[in-house]
Specification:
2 strands
Amino acid sequence: MNIAATLTGLGQTATYVIVSVFFIWLVKQIDDWRTKDFDDDVHIDNGNTAVGFRRGGLYIGIAIAMSGAMKGASSGFLLDVIQLFIDGLIITGFLFTCRFINDFMMLGNIENDAECVKEFTDAQGRTCVGNTAVGIVEASMFIATGFILSGSVSGTGGHFLQGIASAVLFFILGQLTLLIFGLLYEMITPFNVRQEIKENNPAAGIGLGGILIALSIILRTSISGDFTGWANDLTSFGIYAAFGIIMLLIFRTVADRLLLPTTDIATEVKEDKNVAALIVIQSAVNAVAIIIAFAL
């Protein structure tokens, strides 16, 4: 083992980690400023799971995206650090754009910020603060967007401006695909998904959020890798997106029959609000998404 080379590599790795941690801190400051009407830290200290989920999803999302920015051939340590910083700024902007899309489109009839600090009374008459279902969906959108960005900023090929243009284009396409998939999910689900989420049904939030993350795992595979030309990359994305949507919708139905033999997802969500059942189902769906992504 070359001790000098190992120590140099560890020092460079520490620098990349410091840059990434800086962006985690930065998104916290931006989100604190964005929600200055209420103190997120106080709500988290008081056990508001909705705020905890959305903030946790933001941190995980940026970490996943930054991991993609570290992939690809090295241009030299200094240039790599500069590129990572530029990618971090782009990723930060995209993540907050994703939050806007989630607030006004994915959950169009719900005001996310207000819901996450709203008081609710549960079936046992207990009062709680924060719509956990909304927090789960917002966290899932951050994580799903993180996977899409991880693929779009990874790899090499093309010049600098092509890299930025590719990241922007695939972010837009990825968000559109998630929105379309969310709409399809609502159409095939025998209850009003958004209404259940608005009524603070965490099982409904897990159902929607979990399947969006599953699709993003597959989409990341279609986006990641070297730039090979616009026509080829766009065609590949379209094929993978269609394949992923079809496979996940099929497996969701299969999972319903195999993993919940004595009941069904609709009953567990709408009537029982069974968080445990939805965790099992969506974990299985995401497991299949991981297998599909590595098999492609």
